[in-house]
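Record 1 of the preview.
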Amino acid sequence: MMTGLTRLGSLADRGRKGLIVIGEGNDSESGVRFSQVLDAARAQHVQCFALLVARHRAQVGRVRQFGFDLFRLASETKGKAYDVRANIDALNEAVQDIIKRLGAPI
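->
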């Protein structure tokens, strides 16, 4: 994620910038702390979106089990996180929503 944020940050301000993270919601071996990623996203004005594509449930009832940082990253950068699991229709809806939020032509 940090590499993507660095590349997006190097672009001249030509409109909105977005980073889409696709994952299953766990991070076990990052070389960069989450706080550094969040700070970089904020500093570069990058909206972050997370697509959780795991087969396991990210949340059981009101208790979130996976994807804490991805949900926080999306929320704190005015992006959004989507728990699409393996549902192709939910994935399509999420992608269409991201396109709409970024104001990109379809």
